[in-house]
Write a sequence for this structure.
């Protein structure tokens, strides 16, 4: 007997522009619970634009198309409501928040997303477990969010948030970029922990991430649209042959 | 901000007032007779009356400052102000003896709880005079003197006579002259040699009556090798008419002493806050002004430290928040008058909803002050286009061995920062609140934790309203 897939995200014929320039051009994509979708493509193809538009960044305007999230029209939700509804974006370039301590930020964020205060003890336990999983040092907690962080540290903090917030839709924008091998494994652990209960959209340039994270689908984006979808083999082929053959095909 | 915090704090939660049940209230307006009457009603020694009268004449002749906000200053109607109001017969040392509505007021502003949990002593001033005073016995037995200033003058006239007006002479500026003429209340604090006061002592200044002028006068003497942390807080009811708060604070840190003076200024917007604060730092001593200005319509205040003794250190950490109809004209003045002296100045200001913040700083190094070090960091954060922020740093460097660092920045909250926070579940207001609290963190982390929490709540309230 086949179990009906539980649809989390459905994008159909989406057009997105930034400052009057069309970047996403008629893209469609469905993500079900428990699926990991890898999204690949050249620099400037529009991957981050897609992720930012889904999260609701005000600079990206949705010109046409439909997006439903858990059956609801996404455009009806403000950014923070999307977060509270279980959407999460791991940023390609996370912001620095001077003076805001990581520990405070994480606790408040958990409370904001869940809508409930969390007991200090529960928070401490959750945090301890997550930091252990990601092999992170406690000294992180008293630093200011992303202030003076190395590239890899920023990415780890994004994954720590992913693990703590337990989203329904996790979008990871090049979270694997700039990581050494050990860090890559750790970040993968974080993704794998969340993946079974969520839909994941993993934007990456590297096949090597997919050695640690099992992708159900690999999509290739060219000039604002998905031009090819396949399994993990597609990532291998891209790694070996680049994108030219696809563009020729398209 | 959370609903919980909102429930606790409301908008300006200190805007309430008690019925004016004063037992003596002078007619509004100022004259030599009023000045003499204030002195007479307090049974002061003649020398103090003379100081007052002299200061009064200086006040009359002295020009208004031309900096700050001359428009508002020139508009002050000194005849519309009450210069003296007595609420109770005596300064009590048991809350039970304080009239109930006044007790409740100090309850609501959180003073009584703080007194019970972690303060070494408090003075509660209500309009012109202290209505309640306490000091822990162990401090008293070590010889610490902590009194309201009127009692200080009565009980320790020799000390007061020796130091009163020596750090801030009445001729310093028009408002120092006014304060010297009509001063009432404030704190007198003396820490004997070598005594370290572990728990902070606090004064709380509450204006209650309408059109009130509050002119407290504070003198803190930390004798050799002693240390103390003094905290002041203040609030007032919201009235349509102007209230004037014009204090003078004088600190003297003797050799090796340390004074930390923290202020949480949260006047209602109808209060003009024109204050002169200055300290003398003797050999190897440290003076720290931890100064916040969140309330008032106009504040002009530039805490100063004269580093008179070799090896002395000055620290000024100040934050200002200028919201709608507020102008915070604040800063710091440090004078390096001796060799090997060091100073550190951090100033942070936020402007929002058309509010205006001004940093006015002076750093002086005299020719004989060799090998001084100073670092000044001045950051302004603008939360919208309508607000204004100006910086006027002045440096007078007379000795080339000085090692100086000066950084200044004006920044805006970036759209990406807000988006990042909102993607983590914070609405715009909460996101702004986090950014603002973070911006002020170098200040709040210097406060005792209860006050830091309080401060963050205050700021969150300020963030409400016009966003979105
Ligand atoms: N805020 C913006 N303002 C102006 N142009 C933008 C903005 N965001 C994206 N663009 C443009 O949209 C195009 C797609 O950018 P996007 O960041 O989505 O690419 P990407 O696929 O994520 O690339 P990379 O692999 O380099 O991260 C680029 O040409 C980029 O310059
Ligand atoms: Mg990108």
């Amino acid at each position: 007997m086949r179990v009906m897939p539980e649809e989390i995200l459905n994008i159909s014929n989406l057009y997105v522009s930034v400052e009057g320039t069309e970047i996403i051009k008629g893209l469609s994509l469905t993500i079900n619970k428990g699926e990991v979708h890898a999204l690949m493509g050249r620099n400037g193809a529009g991957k981050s634009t897609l992720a930012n538009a889904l999260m609701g960044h005000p600079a990206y305007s949705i010109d046409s198309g439909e997006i439903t999230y858990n059956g609801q029209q996404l455009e009806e939700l403000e950014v923070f409501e999307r977060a509270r509804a279980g959407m999460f974006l791991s940023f390609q370039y996370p912001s620095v928040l001077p003076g805001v301590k990581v520990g405070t930020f994480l606790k408040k964020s958990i409370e904001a997303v869940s809508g409930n205060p969390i007991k200090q003890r529960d928070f401490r336990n959750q945090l301890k477990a997550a930091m252990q999983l990601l092999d992170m040092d406690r000294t992180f907690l008293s630093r200011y969010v992303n202030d003076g962080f190395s590239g890899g540290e920023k990415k780890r903090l994004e994954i720590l948030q992913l693990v703590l917030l337990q989203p329904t839709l996790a979008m990871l924008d090049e979270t694997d970029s700039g990581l050494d091998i050990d860090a890559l494994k750790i970040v993968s652990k974080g993704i794998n922990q969340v993946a079974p209960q969520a839909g994941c959209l993993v934007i990456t340039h590297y096949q090597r991430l997919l050695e640690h994270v099992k992708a159900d689908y690999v999509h290739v984006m060219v000039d604002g649209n998905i031009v090819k979808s396949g399994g993990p083999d597609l990532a291998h082929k891209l790694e070996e042959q680049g994108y030219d053959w696809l563009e020729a095909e398209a | 901000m959370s609903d919980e915090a909102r429930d606790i704090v409301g908008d300006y939660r200190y805007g309430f007032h008690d019925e004016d049940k004063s037992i003596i209230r002078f007619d509004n307006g100022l004259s030599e007779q009023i000045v003499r009457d204030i002195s007479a009603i307090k049974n002061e020694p003649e020398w103090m009356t003379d100081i007052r009268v002299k200061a009064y004449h200086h006040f009359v002749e002295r020009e208004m400052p031309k900096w700050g906000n001359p428009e508002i200053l020139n508009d002050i109607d000194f005849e519309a102000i009450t210069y003296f109001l007595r609420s109770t017969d005596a300064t009590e040392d048991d809350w039970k003896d304080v009239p109930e509505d006044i007790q409740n007021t100090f309850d609501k502003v959180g003073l009584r709880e703080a007194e019970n949990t972690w303060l070494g002593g408090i003075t509660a001033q209500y309009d012109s005079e202290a209505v309640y005073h306490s000091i822990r016995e162990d401090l008293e037995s070590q010889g610490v003197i902590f009194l309201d200033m009127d009692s200080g003058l009565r009980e320790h006239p020799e000390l007061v006579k020796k130091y009163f007006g020596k750090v801030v002479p009445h001729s310093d500026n028009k408002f120092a002259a006014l304060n010297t003429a009509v001063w009432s209340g404030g704190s007198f604090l003396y820490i004997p040699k070598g005594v370290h006061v572990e728990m902070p002592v606090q004064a709380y200044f509450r204006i209650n009556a309408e059109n009130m002028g509050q002119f407290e006068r504070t003198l803190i003497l930390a004798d050799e090798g002693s240390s103390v942390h003094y905290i002041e807080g203040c609030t007032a009811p919201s009235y349509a008419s102007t209230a004037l708060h014009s204090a003078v604070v004088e600190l003297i840190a003797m050799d090796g002493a340390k004074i930390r003076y923290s202020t949480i200024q949260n006047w209602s917007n109808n209060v003009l806050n024109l204050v002169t604060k200055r300290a003398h730092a003797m050999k190897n001593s440290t003076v720290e002004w931890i100064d916040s200005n969140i309330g008032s319509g106009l504040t002009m205040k530039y805490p100063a430290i004269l580093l008179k003794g070799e090896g002395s250190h000055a620290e000024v950490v100040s934050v200002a928040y200028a919201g709608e109809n507020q102008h915070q004209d604040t800063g710091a003045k440090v004078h390096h008058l001796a060799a090997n002296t060091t100073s550190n100045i951090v100033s942070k200001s936020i402007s929002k909803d058309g509010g205006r913040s001004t940093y006015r700083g002076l750093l002086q190094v005299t020719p004989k002050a060799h090998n001084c070090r100073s670092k000044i960091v001045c950051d302004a954060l603008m939360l919208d286009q309508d607000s204004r922020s100006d910086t006027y740093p002045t440096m007078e460097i007379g000795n080339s061995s000085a090692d100086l660092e000066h950084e200044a920045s004006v920044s805006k909250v970036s759209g990406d920062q807000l988006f990042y926070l909102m993607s983590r579940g914070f609405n715009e207001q909460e996101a702004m609140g986090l950014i603002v609290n973070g911006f002020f963190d170098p200040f709040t982390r210097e406060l005792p934790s209860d006050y830091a929490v309080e401060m963050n709540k205050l700021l969150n309230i300020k963030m409400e309203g016009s966003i979105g």
User: Anything to note?
Assistant: The first strand of chain B starts at residue 24 and ends at 25. Residues 1-10 of chain B have pLDDT under 50 and may be disordered.
